[in-house]
Amino acid sequence: MTITQQVTSAPLVAVVGATGVQGGSVIKALAESDKPYRIRGFTRDVTKAAAQTLKKRGVEMVTVNLVVENKEEVYKAFAGADYAFLVTNFWEHMNTEKEVSEGKLLIDAAKAAGVKGIVWSGLLPVKKISGGKYTKVVYFDGKAAVTDYGRASGVPFVDVQAGWYTSNLLAIPAFLAKQLDGTYALPWSIRPTTVVPMIDMENDYGLYVRKVLEQPVFPDGSALYTSSEDISAEELARQLSEVTGKKVVFKQVTGEEFANAFLTLGYPATVTGALIEVFQYFDEFGCYGGQPTAPSREGLARPTRTFAEFAESADWSKVFA
Ligand SMILES: NC(=O)c1ccc[n+]([C@@H]2O[C@H](COP(=O)([O-])OP(=O)(O)OC[C@H]3O[C@@H](n4cnc5c(N)ncnc54)[C@H](OP(=O)(O)O)[C@@H]3O)[C@@H](O)[C@H]2O)c1
């Protein structure tokens, strides 16, 4: 644990989403480092348990609502930071315009604070990569627009893309569903052999951000493609069965069926197109548009976990209740 507030020579890293999956992983990885860091985490509610836990671990927790209507406070929140980790949360509001404007605001605020580098959690421009074929994967395209803005900002800028969270299987029943016969399925509209970069976010994502921050020279302009293990959908189901002892099969469904499972969970119809097209894009181009994940994994402070290791350590009791 090398989080400090006393050593003023330690770089101050401002972390957006500190109480969430991505920011939490970044803080975990920096805390594991033998290099000291000062960490400032942002939250809208400093009294919540996750914020209090971080505070006890030495993170300076700052209450701020990171929205354009609150520009002045957002700028103040970044003051004094040496580096910034930025992420937007599309799924909280599912509004691309809002995601893009807030992403740009975060870049502007970090720039105004004079940071030496921004690490941004982006995704690829699906519309561009697919030559205009897939136009609805807005939570990729929105983040890609923010990436373009960041790269043009003049601040050293690195894009650390998040793969497909292994924890999606624990959190969202549309990804791992009980069947009528009592067995379980991954009912996805993707080919069984399509390989997905699965990332154990909590344990592994932050390692990539730490790698960026600990390079002798901040690797301006680069992009990292995170993955704990690249694995096909059918192999995921096989390993999940093996580890949990439950019968889990991969079941290829139509895009409409896949999207409907989300609508049943209360997702708005506005994201139907995105949910249908995202797996079509994965099938045709791959999550990372064909970019390999191995070079990004090189030089991480510790090895990433395999999917089986994640599955062995996860609590599946709620999923298989
Ligand atoms: N699931 C996947 O497989 C996957 C893959 C790639 C990318 N992603 C992307 O990951 C993003 C979500 O990141 P995550 O998983 O880390 O989210 P998360 O665990 O739900 O956490 C969201 C974080 O954002 C903070 N936040 C949200 N709105 C805020 C605001 N207005 N002001 C201040 N803080 C705010 C929250 O802080 P407080 O609540 O404490 O204020 C929280 O710390 C999404 O954009 C999604 O597209 C997901």
TrEMBL record:
Protein's UniProt keywords contain NADP: yes
Keyword line: NADP, Oxidoreductase
Organism encoding this protein: Mycena venus
The protein's name: NmrA domain-containing protein
GO molecular function: oxidoreductase activity
SUPFAM superfamilies, A to Z: NAD(P)-binding Rossmann-fold domains
Domain NmrA-like: 12-309
Pfam families listed in its UniProt record: NmrA
One GO CC term, this protein: nucleus
Highest taxon, organism lineage: Eukaryota
Family statement: Belongs to the NmrA-type oxidoreductase family.
Family matches, as InterPro entries: NAD(P)-bd_dom_sf (IPR036291), NmrA-like (IPR008030), NmrA-like_oxidored (IPR051164)
